[in-house]
């Protein structure tokens, strides 16, 4: 476990899972609300098995914190904390691994962090532009949020994205906090204008993404297929030997028990 003191005054706890042997690249992951550096263990295991070092961190809203101290409102600070954690990766990865190509990813509220690090535009209520980019090769975005005043998400949010993005959601992945149906989570893909971008919709998959979040029941077949696709996408942009695999899968795979919809826009 690693800790770093952030500019916000919070001490971030960071866990890094390494593959056997030299990692091909790094995936820095932002948890959904309530998640922390111990969440997403099934996803961490799946990524390291495929040669990817996997980074997780806690946030002010993590379940481990005292309920009276949880920050469940200040989403701009959550974005800024994640950006700083990515920026300071040499402090917990070491220079050799920190110099590897890296991707960012996130789930639900964490998806917002990953998109912000891909140069998506978020404007706060006080007029600050939170668009950021530190050189990530691509982004894996699970359960993204559609347009919503509470997160200042608009059509323009997705028009400035600078990297390839793979969006992953499911037919049962509804917006519980907003009351939106599962189609709400398709908006970043469908209303986005940047390329390349991919979409994978899991049949019957809910917000726990086949149990890869570490919560809910693990659907082994679906979890394996989703992990394969996400890893192939990351390696396609971070490791040259996998250059065409993710595009091949997204272009040629047909609806199945796992995926009801697969699209690739290039």
Care to give the gist of this entry?
This protein has 8 helices and 9 strands. The protein has 266 residues and is of the alpha/beta class.
Task: Describe the model.
- This protein has 266 residues and is of the alpha/beta class.
- The protein is built from eight helices and nine strands.
- The chain has a nine-stranded mixed β-sheet with strand order 1-2-4-3-5-6-7-8-9, sandwiched between helices.
- Helix 6 links the parallel strand 7 (165-170) and strand 8 (197-202).
- The protein starts with a strand and ends with a strand.
List keywords for this structure.
alpha/beta, 26% helix
Overall SS class: alpha/beta
| SSE topology string | EEEHEHHHEHEEHEHHE
Number of strands: 9
Largest sheet: 9 strands, mixed
Mean pLDDT: 87
Unreliable segments of 5+ consecutive residues: none
Share in helix: 25-40%
Question: Largest beta sheet: what is the strand line-up?
Answer: 1-2-4-3-5-6-7-8-9
Number of helices: 8
Report strand %: 15-25%
Give the N-to-C terminal Cα separation: 39 Å
Shape: globular
What is the C-alpha radius of gyration, as a whole number of Å?
A: 17 Å
